[in-house]
User: Fold these one by one.
Assistant:
Number 1:
Amino acid sequence: MRQVALPGGERVPALGLGTWGMGEARRGAADEAAALTLGIELGMTLIDTAEMYGEGGAEELVGKVIAGRRQSLFIVSKVYPHNATRPGAIAACERSLKRLGTDRIDLYLLHWRGEVPLAETLEGFLELRRSGKIRHYGVSNLDTADMEEWCALAGGEATATDQVLYNLSRRGVEWELLPWLRRHGMPVMAYSPIEQGRLLRHRALAAVARRHDATPAQIALAWLIRQEGVIAIPKAALPQHARENRRALDITLSAEDLAELDQGFPPPRRAEPLAML
Ligand code: NAP
């Protein structure tokens, strides 16, 4: 499995497993659990979840799947902005730990910026790290100016990642945020890497996929993770999708492929505000 280094040197898989929309209904739960289990067996040992997903349902599902194999996994979860005061973040993390059935979260993120001052959230994260309940902390949906503010706070320099919307059809981050993260030695975690399935019908993607005897989803993922410091976390509730996504790691895109993808999905020509879903 290709890996990406976090600041501080720990290495995590470049391809992980998303869980948004999982754990919401009993129907589909068996497939969801099977897809996550298969994904783990195939080496996608980074699992992204959040207290928001299914209002705890996704964390509970992840808890069931990881029971007995926690050691080899890297679990990411997120705190709601309205819970992200110092005591609120600590309490939310403890609830997440209970649902996940584990004593530590590997990476804990502020889901997006809300009303709570960033300094309070970071104090909560530092306390959680001191007590061993989280190993790393980071943020999500923060644009460059917010990153500057966050990283200037005490402890901000140890931030592990910014998880943002990034895929072929959402390249705005390439203008400023990605170079900023690279300069600060921070990987980006690309969420909705296949634009929740909407990317898959795009003509440019289909043409490149045909050349590689691959699927559009595999090309979209290969395009992201070919870049240094990019982690992609596709969500697959179906085992066949998890298997298909894993094969993205075996694809090497040529200069011709990249040029064709640039034509179909032009890179940004000016600054634009960070998009989020
Ligand atoms: P996504 O991963 O881009 O797309 C998921 C959709 O694509 C699902 O409908 C899935 O179907 C389908 N799919 C997956 N693999 C496929 C394949 N090989 N062929 C065809 N269809 C395929 O969207 P996402 O769930 O929004 O994003 C991924 C993860 O990022 C989330 O689950 C979540 O963990 C995280 N996220 C974070 C934020 C944030 O604010 N921080 C926001 C959004 C997402 P099936 O499920 O039926 O297999």
Note: The radius of gyration is 18 Å.
Number 2:
Amino acid sequence: MNNVSENEILSLRNISHIYDQKNQKLKVLSNINFQIVKGEIVSLIGPSGTGKSTLLNIAGLLESPSIGSVQLCGINCNKLNEDAKANLRGSKIGFVFQSHRLFPEFSAIENVMLPQLIMGTSKSIAEKKSRDLLTMLGLEKRFTHRPSTLSGGESQRVAIARAVANSPSLILADEPTGNLDPVSAQNVFEILYKLVKSLNISCLIATHNHALAKSMDRGIFLENGNIKEK
Ligand code: ADP
Ligand code: MG
């Protein structure tokens, strides 16, 4: 293996995607190619409805592309069955969405422990890691709080802790600051950026916030199914 492929965390090759809608076929992505290397933080920008979420779902193995292949950490995912995809997703990818999607009946620490327990980590190790992550994100006084008692920015920080809990290679974030006021958005983004840089995790972050996009390592602009590197 040469250095380039060793460093390659995500590689999308000749990806096209077509949705079957009621009376028509909608081509959302057209022959998309790009790679993300280890530790790189990349923005994904483009008008609403252009296919950012579709692209993230394909990169995250939640949806199979109509055409093309997804390689994650050197593994060609096309031929994997659903169980193998779920396993790879659980160990290599962390997701952050526009809304926090925390479980309301669980505390902050339990929400961060859950994906670790699912992947077979022991309760004591999962609890220690969750405490450490929440502390790194400035939430040491919120361990036992349920999501309904957290602010929007705090909830997103718990969601970020949950996304990195299994030490993924890649974070896929779909407008992670889209529901926050400008100050909280900046704050959550800075904390996410610092955390993933310190852990050397790659990120692909869909955002409408051009100021945040500018502060990332690289930008990809999606329009009419095609991408332009910015
Ligand atoms: P974005 O995240 O950039 O707003 P999306 O990826 O959500 O864009 O959607 C891109 C286009 O694909 C939109 O026109 C949307 O209506 C359509 N679309 C998304 N998901 C589906 C689906 N499951 N079935 C049919 N059409 C879809
Ligand atoms: Mg979207």
Note: The helical segments are 3-7, 52-59, 82-92, 108-118, 123-136, 152-164, 182-199, 210-214.
Number 3:
Amino acid sequence: MKNFTSVHDVEDVAWLCGRAFAFKEKPEREAQSGRGKTLGLIFLNPSLRTRLSTQLAAQNLGMNVIVLNVSGEGWKLEFADGTVMDGPEAEHVREAAAVIGEYCDIIGLRAFAGLKDRERDYREELLQKFIEFSDRPVISLESATRHPLQSLADLLTIEELKRRPNPKVVLTWAPHPNPLPQAVANSFCEWMLRADVELVVSHPPGYELAEQFVEGAVIEYDQRKAFSGADFIYAKNWSAFGEYGAVLNRDPDWMITAEKMELTDNARFMHCLPVRRNVVVEDAVLDSPASVVVQQAGNRVWAAQAVLSEILSETGRGNRG
Ligand code: SN0
């Protein structure tokens, strides 16, 4: 594995899950493999789980970790070519990524969708420029269209908790006051479609995700119908893809409630966090034994460790990116 930006970078998803579970069982099993190597974690947006779990995973492999919060501490970056840089942007990604590549053997990058220019976001311009100009392996810590470390941890959690083969997994849209990226939802779908689950996606009209992510999933506009017989309920808000970045619906009737969870087959409740209580999901669900959000977040460490270990085994063979 050279870069880790989507499920398409993974040859064998089941095998990668196996590696993650092996690290969960024995975190120090490859404690020397990253010795003398540096991971740089570059954040253009806030983070709690991603920053801590990826740092912990790298340390378990013996790596050095350095973190830069670009939005708070770095120079404001320019990404477009040929611009006259007389505005607030002080540094171009061409130099910034190249310099980070000098310091780091592997780079993790968080760069959310801007939600203004759909073509630019879906081309993954920021991520691609970091890959190109750093000349190092890059791990997505949530890009414009995907959050693959989250999705891998989600899959690990489903594998640990499923009570039957081919469980019914429902991704449901839920309300939120602000426009959020489609990345978590897109990514969850493409990973679930590579796993042994029955995927149902439920959202109000207007919230259809890009075809490339949901092709093969069942779309059910009636949330209650979608919940029927479900083994896992995965809640997430996203803004519209069609009317790009718009908040079209704030209907509290889409919130996940204990009453709706009754429609499922004793389903577990999942969310990537952070979650807005009593907007996305009511306290009664989040505080019930059905909620597995903390276990899910815990699995972020093993997802990151499995991915880092794979990339290290490549860089060890002298691959500079
Ligand atoms: C991000 C998202 O992509 O939806 C990160 C999730 C891992 N979530 C948010 O930005 C939530 C912010 C909020 O105001 O609730």
Note: The radius of gyration is 20 Å.
Number 4:
Amino acid sequence: MTIIVTGGAGFIGSNFVYHMLEKYSDYKIVCVDCLTYAGNLSTLEGALENPNFKFYKTNICDREEIYKIFEDEKPNIVVNFAAESHVDRSIDNPEVFLKTNILGTQVLMDACRKYGIDRYHQVSTDEVYGDLPLDRPELFFTEETPIHTSSPYSSSKAGADLLVLAYHRTYGLPVTISRCSNNYGPYHFPEKLIPLMIANALNEKPLPVYGKGENVRDWLYVKDHCKAIDLIIHKGRVGEVYNVGGHNEMANIDIVKLICQKLGKSEDLITYVADRKGHDMRYAIDPTKIHRELGWLPETKFKDGIDLTIKWYLENREWWETIISGEYQSYYDKMYKNR
Ligand code: NAD
Ligand code: TYD
């Protein structure tokens, strides 16, 4: 069994690479990642020595190179994590989101059609459903919820999802899609809420909360997401979408206060800044389908997952300090300086 994992040098992709190498000693895992600002080869240090692992520094939009990799590796399964993934960056500059997230997906699926594949899996997001109001806690996203996006990021992910379903219907490509809620855990890039707040708190820097901090996200420990994808690629029904989420809704401000408390830092570090444009209010997944069909349930409770995550950031300071000392600094100034 050979699995191509695109975006495997990023947050969720790398956790998936480690999960698969550990669980299936007879699988070959081929990572394809062009190492954007969000991709980091040091993240894959523990895999690079493994004879079952291979790394290609390649852009998924590069049709010629992607076809060559398919010709050489003859994958049985492709799992596409590669994406531009940060909403704030998509608001600043949408173009690369459309290129990677939509056109890159197309190149991968064309390669699957040309060389044959048992399964193409698209890693998508609950953000394709738009948002829910705070005063209707009984509402959740199901797989039938209409696509209704807010940001260039979520629109590009929705565009890709529609294309994936079209390749199934039109060409019979054996596809599946997972739409997951917000992940947290090791190797999370420090531009995202939880790792940004941990890093800033540890450095006694202001903790920038958008708007009033009332926005709600449904947080899932990354390893539970990896287990869900593992189940879907092996047992999920072709042509189907599976929602993945933790039934773990929290307001941003509560997360930030919890991080302050866990790290013994003062809440005075919290600074309310201008809201994100088009800011989605609430995400909440109904994971009934994946539970009923595949028996998946989140295994890590938030109270344990956040402790594991904070511990990881404390023990792996070099990993994130290297990141925030580089080009990240100019990104940070641009996003937060006059906010
Ligand atoms: P990330 O930004 O941490 O990692 C993305 C990876 O893709 C990086 O290693 C980057 O180098 C690589 N990449 C980007 N453009 C590429 C290209 N053109 N060619 C090859 N590689 C490229 O992202 P993440 O948080 O790990 O998210 C992975 C996937 O999961 C994305 O598709 C995202 O939409 C989806 N997702 C993320 C979350 C979340 O909470 N982070 C939730 C649901 C779904
Ligand atoms: P983020 O981690 O960017 O994920 P997403 O927008 O894809 O859900 O943000 C999570 C929430 O945290 C979102 O409501 C925006 C908010 N947020 C802040 O308040 N401050 C920040 O500095 C960041 C990065 C996010």
Note: The mean pLDDT is 97.
